[in-house]
Structure formats: structure tokens, C-alpha cells
Amino acid sequence: DSSNEENLSMLREHEEDSDVLIECRDVYKSFGEKHILRGVNFKIRHGEAVGIIGPSGTGKSTILKIIAGLLAPDKGEVYIRGRLRNGLISDEEISGLRIGLVFQSAALFDSLTVRENVGFLLYEKSSMPEDQIAELVTETLAAVGLKGVEDRLPSELSGGMKKRVALARSIIFDTTYDAIEPESQKYAGLDPIASTVVEDLIRSVHFNGEDAVGKPGKIASYVVVTHQHSTIRRAVDRLLFLYEGKVVWHGMTHEFTSSTNPIVQQFASGSLDGPIKY
């Protein structure tokens, strides 16, 4: 009867949503008179590698900062593992969850060594002995392909090495990360080969892959904000296309270049002709 059908429908919906890590519902954000997000809706599930793409200034980094709790939406709701994020709550309030954010600039402390940068939160907030932290730092650096750099300062590292150190810092905890979010233009200043190395590195630390020393990755899911087509091809499985503050297209990576959406077509081809104007 109709009640049984309704119950089955609700059960299927619950099962489909049981693996949702992050959900944005009608999220809006403005800075003064500038409207950045205008009703963003999407879900990211456990195990996914997702890319958020779109023209500059469409709110890609803003939505990551809202998810990470660095910004609060003006309107709308963000759910982390089904729990409403009210303002700037701490990840520790959601049992078993950790969200790491790798900033565009790497955001390393210039006066601290690589060891001190990677282990910063553990040194500051954990009761772990310093020698144990140092050992964990060395293991984590090895996982991102860096060895013997623990005593160097950031000024002694190349741009690509700084990115790796920042990634190591975001995965230093021994628990599996539910999500890691490399921020916009992560590859700025890297040559194509270095970009490929970082793209492969992100894949390797995903729990479906193996890190640089052959161990399973620590990251359950990750979200990448990027403009680069190589990243789209190599580092993510599903795409969300953000334009004028809304998700105007979503699909699997292999569907990107064959999309009939004129906005996506123009972005994919780099054409000056189309709805996207600069």
C-alpha cells in the first residue's frame, strides 16, 4: 500500500545519505555589497575525491572555508556527518572527524623548522612525548615523499617541497581524515612536472591509494579547488562546477569535456565566446 511505499522510499533515502560527509543546503555568503555564494547545494560522500571548479571569483575558496569552519554562511545550512554546523564550531565537537585545509600559500611558519611546522599542533595541544612527535613527523614526511628535511627552514625549501610539508602537516594525526581540502590555486608557481607530482601525491594519500612509502593513505575523502585541467584529469573523480555563486553542473570527471552545458563547454575549451565574461 501507499504507506509501505512511503516507508521504503524513506529507508532508501536514509541509506543513500548514510555515507554523506558534507552537505551544503542553499548556502549564501556576501562580503559587503559583493554577493559571492547565491544558494549553493551539494553533497560529498565518504571515499569521494571531488573537484570544485569554475571561473575566478565564483566562491570556490569561500565554500571551502565555510565547510572548514573558518567562515560562517549568511544563510543556509552546512552539515558535517549529518550534524548542523552552527557558525565556527570545532571539528573536535564531531566525534571521530578531522578536516584538514591546505592553504594556497602553504602557510608555513617561517621561523620554525620543517619538523616544528609539521608537528605544530601536536607540540602545542597533545600530551605526546616530543621524541614520539618527532618520529611521527619523520614518518609523515616520508609518506609525502620528503626525507631528511626535518631541520630545514621553509626558506630553504622549493615551492613544491613547501606544498608537501603543508600536506604532511594536514595529515599528521594518526586518525584517518574524513576530508582534506587543498585550497584554490594550490599549484600556483609550480611547473607542469611539479604540479603532476603534487597531483599524484594527493591521490597517494587517499585511503584508496598508497603513500610514498607504500602504506595505505590516511584521507577518506578530499576536495580540491582548482583551475587546472591536469588536476581535473589526475586528482579527482567527480566535479562540481561553480558559476555566479551556484553549482550549475556536476558530474564525473570523464563527463566534463562532453558536457552540453554552454558554461562548462566554454570553460573546458578556454574560448572567449560564451556566457562567461571577464
From TrEMBL:
Q: What's one Pfam family here?
A: ABC_tran
A single GO molecular function, which one? ATP hydrolysis activity
**SMART domains, alphabetized:** AAA (SM00382)
Q: Which residues form the ABC transporter domain?
A: 22-269
Cite the entry's keywords alphabetically.
Answer: ATP-binding, Nucleotide-binding, Transport
Protein name, please?
A: ABC transporter domain-containing protein
